[in-house]
Amino acid sequence: MASNIIAWGSGEDGQLGIGTNEDKEWVCSVKALPSQHVRSVVAGSRNSLAILNDGKLFTWGWNQRGTLGHPAETKTENIPSQVKALSHAHIVQAAIGGWHCLAVDDHGKAYAWGGNEYGQCGEEPERKDDNGRPLRRDIVIPQPCAPKLSVRQVAAGGTHSVVLTREGHVWTWGQPWPPGDIKQISVPVRVQGLDNIKLIAVGAFHNLALQEDGTLWAWGNNEYGQLGTGDTQPRSQPVPVQGLSGLTVVDIAAGGWHSTALTDDGEVYGWGRGEHGRLGFGDSDKSSKMLPQRVQLLAGEDIVQVSCGGTHSVALTRDGRIFSFGRGDHGRLGYGRKVTTGQPMEVPIDIPPPQNLGDADGEAEGNWIAKLVACGGRHTLAIVEWKDDESKAESIHD
After folding, report:
1. Quick check: 92 pLDDT over 80?
2. Structural domains in the chain (count)
3. Residue 378 is part of a domain; what is its CATH number?
4. Does Ribosomal protein appear among the keywords (predicted)?
C-alpha cells in the first residue's frame, strides 16, 4: 500500500519536515521519511514526530530545548532525523507537550526528553542551586521515566505529563497549572478517582480521561469551559463532563484550550474556547462553550477522528476526507486561504500519485485518502494512502 505523510501550515521552526522553513497553505509531502512504513505522526506546538512500524522514532522542528531528542546543533531542523538514543526500543506511541516529549515502547516502558524546568520529564538526581532550590536541566537525550509503571499511553501538556497504565490507572507529574498555582512534582502521582480508563487526552493545562463504560472525566484549568462542567472553575480532581449522557463516546481530543468528543455514530461534540471558530460552530458563533455541543456542520459526515491544535481543529471522515476549521493564518487550514473560519471546509489532498503506479500513459487513476490526522500549534500532519479506482470499484461491490 503506497502511503505518504503530508504537512501544512506554519513552517517557521522546520516543523513541516520538508527541507525549508516556509509556511505552506496547501498540503505537501514529507519526502524524507520512508512513508509506507509510518505507523503514526504527532504534531506539537513547534515540533513534529513520526513512529515507524519497526518502532523507530523520527523528530523534526524546533530544538532549542532538546525537544528533538538530541543536542541542538541548530535552533531548528527541517528534515526528520531518527532519535538514536531510542533505537534499542520499539516505540509504539508518543506525545509532544509545550517543549517536552514522551514515548512508550511495546513493553510499557516510558521515556521523556526536552524541557524539564517543572519536572515534566520526570525524576532526576536532585541538584540544587546556591540558594538550595532544585536545579532542573533540559533533558536532551531521552531517558526512562515513571520506571515503576507499565504504561499504555502517554500524553503531554504545556508543562506536565500524564500516562495511562495497563491497569487503567492515570498518573501525572510536572506542573499542571501555570506557575504559582500548584507545586510542581517530578515523581509520578496517581490521579485519584479514576479506574478502568481506556484513553487520555491532554491540552495545555487541562486533562480528559475516557472510562471503559463511556464516562468522560476532566480536570485542570477551566477558564474557557474546556472541562465541560457548565462553569469556569478549575478542578484539581477529575469531575464528569456534563452533557454527554446517552451518547457512546469512542474518542477524545484536547487542544490548547478546547476539547472534543467523538461518538460511535460519527458525531463530533466540542466545548471550551471558541475564539477563531476552532469548535466548528460556524462563522456567526465563535463564543466559548462551557458544555459539550454537537458540531452540526459535520453532521452526517461520519467522523472517525478529530485532532485539536492550538487554535484550529481537523476532522477525519471514514472515507478518508479531511475537514479543517479555526484560525487561518500561516495556512494552517490547508486549502490555500489564510482566512479564519468556524465553518469546517474540506482540505484538498492534492499531491502527485505514487510514481510506480502509472499505467501506459503515465496517469495513475485513483486518489489519496487520509488515515490519521494530527494538529499542532500552527501546523497539521496527516498520513494518507493511495486508493486506486479498481480497489474503489471492488469496495463498492463488497
Report:
1. yes
2. 1
3. 2.130.10.30
4. no
